[in-house]
């Protein structure tokens, strides 16, 4: 793996000072700080110079897959089977640093680690773990996660995709949509109903009756591959069912981990937008003085600092809870919802503060803003997370009209 | 222009790499009470030219076999540069420090480094051509002098397959090989610096750092105080096409950029 520049030789414009008003990172371990610096330096050297081209071309650069594997950050909190074995806090820090680069990059890592590797690690057979996990940790195999369907997003339990037991094999029929990494994946974790019960299946690229056409025309997450997964009498061997889980618990376990990572990741995007807004408003002169000297701008910067700081404390406390096992899913809902919400508002506000320049890809903000519109919706929409908290507070579910 | 000076066959090598911890080269340096206020430095890093020396050492032992001892001189915080080296695969780590060592002069620093180099058994010493904080460039040649070793400075290219070094010469560059013991000081080379990975970082957690000290005698230099560099003079402004000849003249004769 190469590093093309070191600090002495970086231009001034490449210097990123991460906003950390309460010195939250001082609570990280030495190991977590080394991992943070490794990912941060890589994002500076290899991602930021290339991200706008990747977005224009609508591709996820394959060299990023290779680099993530070489750094050894995929499936960060999983251990054994060639996985990194880091803390959940370290996983959060990795997501934050990746999303400072781009939400599409962090999405790749989230899907690979939390949505594809995790179910194999937690619910897979010993043979499945040995077969897939080492190569997924190294980035040699890419995974995706098929839960959402065209007509079943917030209500995944209503899924239509079904599996039939044909004696010596299963047959899958149905379609999944909005699947990150789908077209570039080597395997898909697909959730389908077998005799009315949701089960997880490992579908490999090349399985008969399986295809993963790419969805085009996105204004968001442009450097990330989004696909449909189509199963037409897709035949898969019996040993590809995940034996360890039945029902929605399976996919929701995965989503808890991915959503946790997003709660950190969104802060990376927010920090990047804050950094850009601060630099821009200090250098942009109007009426003979930097616009940062005006109260309206300072009010906005102060609001950003306030929300990012609160989000950082939330993410770190949640990370500690993930590591000591004292978390509940509602903790994750709160953090994912809050941190993505404030990140999106910060991106929109930063765009405004950059004036006309804010629409140019010379600045990261409008890209982050467009990305975060997706992040607010995927992995449990903002509103669904409110309903999860509402149920937690009242004991009354309000997702459906039934009951 | 390249001059092939000699050829040394590849052998297993023992290399000592001297690493200095310096304030991040983008950090703002404040003076407090006539001294650099270290508590205001938010980030400490390995001096960048030393990183190129370490990269060359890693390439050298990959090609020839052998091992690296990373040596730093500094207080507790300097362990970080050794841990960073450990994350890249260096297994022998030595930190040198003693009471009241905040104001060692260059000779004393070199005495202490030479003791550690001798203890490591290294036949080659790699270090940066100068540190990013003091920029004196005295460590490499000074250590070479005390060791009685050959010294090649400002190396800009290292070829691991032939253990040869490219250094500036009066009419371009010259490529040399050198018999050990030798001290090589590195400039920025063409090599990409390798990055750590999670596996290396986790190994570095277990890496043992040997803390040693030396009898460095007394300083011959009296420290009188730090001061900030002089403020840059304000820039000149030119307006209108009439100024073009004057501006071109200044760029050519004063700024010497044309």
CATH architecture of chain B: 3-Layer(aba) Sandwich
Q: What percent of the residues of chain B sit in helical stretches (DSSP H or I)?
A: 25-40%
Going by CATH, the homologous superfamily of chain B would be HUPs
Number of domains of chain A: 3
Distance between the termini of chain B: 25 Å
CATH topology of chain B: Rossmann fold
Please sum up the structure shown.
By secondary structure, chain A is α+β, with helices and mostly antiparallel strands.
Verbal overview:
The complex is a heterodimer of chains A (403) and B (258). Chain A has 403 residues and is an alpha+beta fold. Chain A has three domains: 15-137, Butyryl-Coa Dehydrogenase, subunit A, domain 1, CATH 1.10.540.10; 143-240, Butyryl-CoA Dehydrogenase, subunit A, domain 2 (Beta Barrel), CATH 2.40.110; 249-394, Butyryl-CoA Dehydrogenase, subunit A, domain 3 (Up-down Bundle), CATH 1.20.140. In chain A, 49% of the residues lie in helices and 14% in strands. Chain A has eleven helices and eleven strands. In chain A, the strands form three sheets. In chain A, strands 3, 4, 5, 6, 7, 8 and 9 form a seven-stranded mixed sheet that branches. A two-stranded antiparallel sheet of chain A has the order 1-2. In chain A, α7 runs parallel beside α9 (329-353). The longest helix of chain A is centred in the middle third of the chain and has 35 residues, at 249-283. Residues 1-7 of chain A have low confidence and may be disordered. With 258 residues, chain B is of the alpha/beta class. Chain B has six helices and 14 strands. The radius of gyration of chain B is 21 Å and the shape is globular. In chain B, 27% of the residues lie in helices and 24% in strands. Chain B has one domain: Rossmann fold, CATH 3.40.50. The two termini of chain B are 25 Å apart. Chains A and B meet through α1 of A and α1, α2 and α5 of B.
